[in-house]
Amino acid sequence: MMTGTYTGTRAKSIANGQGAPTLGGSHEDERWFPLVGPVLAAIVAVLGWFVGYSLNARRDQKTKRQELRIQHLIATYRRLEPATKPGATETVSDLKSALSDIRLFGSGRQIAAVDSRL
Q1: How many domains does the chain have?
Q2: Which residue has the higher pLDDT, 42 or 94?
Q3: What b/e readout covers 72-97, taking b as 16+ CB neighbours within 10 angstroms?
């Protein structure tokens, strides 16, 4: 057996000027390489859009909840505040309603403060 001689399929590819086969497979695989970068960039962009959208939606919901909570607590304060003045004629139902709103919309600390006063 002689060293340095090629036989079979490898000899035919070298004889046709194609050189040795590449590790990646045939030369047909190389035509897809220019498409890989833009496709990956598009996938990353779409995924980033979905992640950004969901984070913004979550933040908007949290902000809206906080705004509503604050509006209700302000309305509750406006109902409760006149009862603190001397000679107040607030009814018991107005006070109970205000305290119920604090229990509903207040923080844990506010709820504990209302419960400790009763």
Answers
A1: 1
A2: 42
A3: ebeebeebbeeeeeeeeeeeeeeeee
